[in-house]
Specification:
There is one protein chain. This protein has a 3-stranded antiparallel β-sheet with strand order 1-3-2, with helices on one face. The chain is mainly alpha-helical and 111 residues long. The N and C termini lie close together (11 Å). Helix content is 41%, strand content 8%. The protein is built from 4 helices and 3 strands; from the N terminus they run βαβαβαα.
């Protein structure tokens, strides 16, 4: 996740503090507040930073999912039981964030 604004970057780091359940909230596995640290990043991430024209000097690396919810909804035939499980998991994760005074700023199937 790349960001142009340092304030947003710091807010994002603080939002993923240790009080949040890692089963419900993705942890940050690596972050960089400066392109000077990009030599420790994976080549693919480094390439994306270079392609961005250095407009996004702040970055977080989080575990990647195998697919997005949008891919599941639009490409797979899921039954009602699976749909309920997904909705319950999403509700549980959002509730956990709200209990800890956090909100999800971009809640959508492609995220």
């Amino acid at each position: 996740k790349f960001m142009a604004n340092e304030r947003c970057f710091i807010r994002e780091l603080n939002a993923r503090d240790t009080h949040l359940d890692p089963d419900l909230v993705l942890p940050v596995t690596m972050s960089s507040a400066s392109l000077a640290l990009r030599d420790i990043w994976h080549d693919e991430v480094d390439l994306k930073l270079e392609m961005s024209g250095n407009e996004f000097p702040f970055g977080l690396i989080m575990p990647a999912a195998s697919k997005t919810l949008a891919q599941v909804v639009f490409n797979e035939r899921i039954n009602m039981v699976s749909t309920k499980k997904i909705m319950r998991s999403l509700g549980r994760a959002l509730d956990h964030l709200h209990e800890h005074g956090r909100i999800h700023g971009d809640f959508n199937p492609s995220n």
